[in-house]
Fold these 2 entries.
Entry 1:
Amino acid sequence: MNLCKNLLIGLTLSLLSLGTFAGDSSSGCGLGWAVFKDTSLVSSALRATTNAFFLNTIAMTSGTSGCAKHSIVKNDKKSLHFMDANKHQLMTEMALGNGEYVSALSQLMGCEEVAFTQNMRENFQNVFVREDMPARELVNRVQMQIISNKELAASCGLI
Amino acid sequence: MQAASLYTGLPQKEKNRWQKLLHFDGERSRIDERAFFVDPNGLTDPLKELEKFVELYTSGSTKKWGRLNLSLACAYPARVKFLKDNNLVKNNQKEDCPDFNNWLTEVNPEGLSVIFSTAYPNNPGSMFGHTFLRFHKKDGKNDLLDYGANYAAFTNEADIGIVYAFKGIFGGYRGYFDLAPYYLKVNEYNHGENRDLIEYELNLRPEQVSNILMHLWELYQGASFDYFFTYENCSFHLAELLNVALDEPLFAPKRWYYLPADLIHALYKQENLVKSIKDRPSQMRKVNSQMSQLSGEQQHLVMKSFKKKDISLLKNMAEEKALIALLNLEKYEEKEKFSTENKKLLRDLLEKVAGDKNWVKTQEIVVPFKNRPHLAHDSQKISLGGGKLDGSEVLNFSYQSGYHDLIARDLGLESFSQFKFITGDIMYRPNDKKIQLNEFTFIDVASLHPWRAYNHQLSWKAGLRVESFLERSDCRNCLRTLAEGKLGLSVGNKNLITSLFFGVVEEFSSQYKDKLKHHLAYEGIFGVKFKKMKLLASMEGRHDLSHIKKRTRHFLNLGGNYSLKRNYEIRLLSRYVYQGTSLELGGQSHSLNLGYYF
């Protein structure tokens, strides 16, 4: 399979590797869809671009309306997006007890890195309870671990 | 005062700055959308564009601009800054641009890196790789949480390969800039495509970084470009974006293609522009590093554990780490097809590791990495030299349009790889004062990728070229066109390689009775490299299918290449052809050449 792929790419296509957008893989939400409603190629391109642009920048800064502006809630969207994109790396690093992904998540959740990383390792089986888990559930479980540990919660500003 | 006269009064540097903001290229802007310009003639006339922009700004025009329907000042913050920096408008006017300000606050940059994504493994053709940017967050503690800017073509997924190639070459796609969290870029290139990322941090003032970001916002409002794979590609437009903030524009070679490596080389042509370099090794490189720390027996055990889905076979932490790395590689390669069994295996192993009190925490695996693209030779080459053709003296001249051949120094490039195109080699024979074409290569690609127990990839060669008949001393100007495709197996490492290939070679020549000859072919290659020297030997057998016993030829190639500097080399080449099963010597040539890359 790899061979066929490599041959194909090697001989024709990736010789012409354009660095393409990976299609419009957005979930259909976000400002991109609201701004460009029709489905032409160009608008699709713009939608992919605006989603990339806004879901991850402006939308992330807009806070969560109706929720208390607690640090962990304010950062929930970012944590969720990060978890969704990096579940696999996070699972590995949480088990190993170090790494830049778990460090980034602790930062997004406003937690002290060492305490967060140690807690996640100790409670690995309570967070990653199954092989395939949606990001929302994982974030909830991480938050539960934080809340259930007073010292960690304090370091995350959750008291 | 009229903007025209103001423009005339601007120093050349500022005139250039305005033109860069419009992506003006001699006669017109490279931006193809008229909506990006405020004047109907702005696409071709930067002066008129300035005049109209000043007029609209000073009159307090309420017209909305760009994709987000913003005021002039909010849609074009870099242009407004230009006006204010040059006192073309009052400097005290405050703009109220919440969208732009929120966006700027989120990206919050104080530094910038140019990221080079290396070739796909086992695919030298992807040396036309990719570059993008990372904006460093102010006080940022984690690179992953920075933002990355990318220029890419928006392609139609329904386009089949040939359509994709055609459109890519001839500007059939639109190119756009986008901005996304850097971790998405790392996922896409570093994990998803298994490519090393080399990050060149630039020595820029925060104001310069801010100017780039402001202009990126402007481009986002309404700019797209025709995407040309060969020249106006991701790296070219990234260079144009950087030029907005640089005093001197980055060097762009005047040839028909622009490579990502050209952008990296251009960074080094400016004094002190590169501040530091960081590497982000691919998962494959991490696996290689982990495995290389294990004995053969341990590697076997890791593979057995992987195949039997049994972690109890592993005896220590090093083996467990290797299996984790291997499973991660499998996950990145298989993506959604990563099997349930492997998912369970990985989770079980990680749970075991997480619960192991004796587990020694280690930092991220340090993977030695010297293959940085700025160390690679440039891509065009001319060679001059002399030698002998069947005992007679000859002079050689060759020109290589691009990019790299097997025997050239491969520092900064994939080891033992070849991606050669549009290369001509001619010979002058002083004896009869004749010039002959020795070889002309349209394209020649080779990847001698070592086979590993945990990475079953074959090596391959493919090419199309014209070559002279070395075996025909009576017909020095006789030529044959040759197409080859071979698959093989390589063993070795980045310094030593042995490969064996099998495949087909098609030859076309007016010298052949039926014009076309079909061959079964095999080829053995042995290569070794030292710090500055590389030695290569190959033996190729071609068996004419119409007379497989009688019409057999073997070609022996011996070569040595010594690098004097990054762009200079001395090369010694010998080629012998043997005919028939008795291997009767049919011809030979030897040459010593001095090559210069530029």
Entry 2:
Amino acid sequence: MKVHNHASTLIVTLIAFSALALAASCLIGATPLPMERLIAALIGAGDPQAELIVWEIRLPRAFAAFLVGMALAGSGAALQGLLRNPLAEPGVLGVSAMSSLFATITIYWGMVQLSPWMLPLASIAGALLATGLLALVAPRVQSVVTLVLVGVGISSLAGAFMSLLINLAPNPFTLSDMMNWMMGSVANRSLEDLAWAAPFWFLGVVMIWISAPGLRALTFGEEAASALGLDVGRSRIWVVLGTGLLTGAAVSVAGAVGFVGIIAPHLVRPLVGHDPARTLVPAALLGGLVLVVADLVARLVPTGQELKLGVVAALIGAPIFIWIAVRRRTLEADQ
Amino acid sequence: MSLMLQGASVFIQGAHLLEKVSFEVRPGKLVGLLGPNGAGKTTAVRALLGLQALSEGNAYLHDKPAHSLTAKQRALQVSYLPQMRKLAWPISVKEAVALGRFAYGGAMGRLSPADALAVEDALGRCSLKGLADRSVASLSGGELARVHLARALASQAPALIADEPTAALDPGHSLDVLAALQSQARAGQAVLVVVHDLALAARFCDEIILLNQGRLVIQDRPEDALSAASLADVYGVKGTWSRGQLYLSGRI
């Protein structure tokens, strides 16, 4: 069994496909407009109606999907490297759930009206609480399965509080607002919404970037990595903060979207020689691409109600998660 | 470069894992760290590396207290082959070995010429050149042991600690590993190796450090450290020396 590394080819290909998907997302939609008007609008030479649709509705939505996908898949890849566990992912480990719980609380009590920073900050606080808890527990439990179970626990706890809030929701508007957050969607996002999350997104990217070489050393386990010269404690802090910021930023834009963080790294890994550091960038790009395409599907499928992005992602992602889990068991049995 | 424990004790929740243990591993020596299960071998090794905090006493890497060094400084002084050797991802043999150069800052895919040379050298010395592009998941136990050894050799640190490098290896591969460690010592490295096979240790090591129940029993040449009396005392087995070889003949 040879190991292949096609990281650079893969990155170039993914960038090209992402650009195509983003453009397609701006050009295709419910309002039937002739292609030439849309292309003109996209390059800034169109009529006001086409420009409004492209720049105010479709472009922010496409970019929201792309950035959210990048954040979640990058977080997934980083958490998998840190915990040495291909099943780790913000959704599975309850990070997204905790983050959307905090976001929902700010909506519920109207705190979002206080400041536009409120939503991203609350989402990030929730995400950091979950990643911090996981990082505390991870060194104590050596077993992959136990850690995933802890994540399931965090997820259920957040879910229970969420149900409580829904149970007590004062009116149907709050209720539908909260359901939107739980299901995950990038509909009706403005460029301004993205701008409030952007600083946290970038900070998270930088932190994950710093931790990348350490993730590779962690292939040998924490003790050996430490003996190789890695400050394991510091690595853990960078990854926890980075994934907390990224997941929080993603949730503040789109609510909880699951499974991207597990699918993208899983598909990318064999193509980059299974190196956890080299997995990061292509996994993030693929995550972005997957969500842009999933959102396009959600918009185009002729259902009475528009499908939610999170629902589409889960419908594709959950079966793949089960498949990875089953395959992993057989691998462990072999050893 | 020497590795030294001075009056080192480790107490954890009332259990005395290590009690006032002092020993030194000098450059050019292959030193075997022996003792029954639970004697404190791994604790002593981890204390030397600064991975285990001492309740009393000191651990020195080349006259510097081990706990005062950063992980990176420590890695440049001593390379370590831990007992737990499962790799999380099926990376290639070459990349696994290249991680031995992590402390030099070149492990991010781009190896400096010196790193690349050290990796090639380590691959060659562990006869892994033909397997360089193979996935570590597809290797046999013996091949994987060679990968870990090569990773430790690639760091070219002046000292090397190996915790049971022959565990789960057949006799032939165990001999290969000990021979490789011996040649490292001959080349001037200070090498400390934890082994369970007494005959193997007696045959290859220049010195033996014998631990029992967290205490140092003796540090001496193999014939003296593993004398019939100390074998009976520590292991409860009968052993006889004949022409520089140790023979075990059952329990007492």
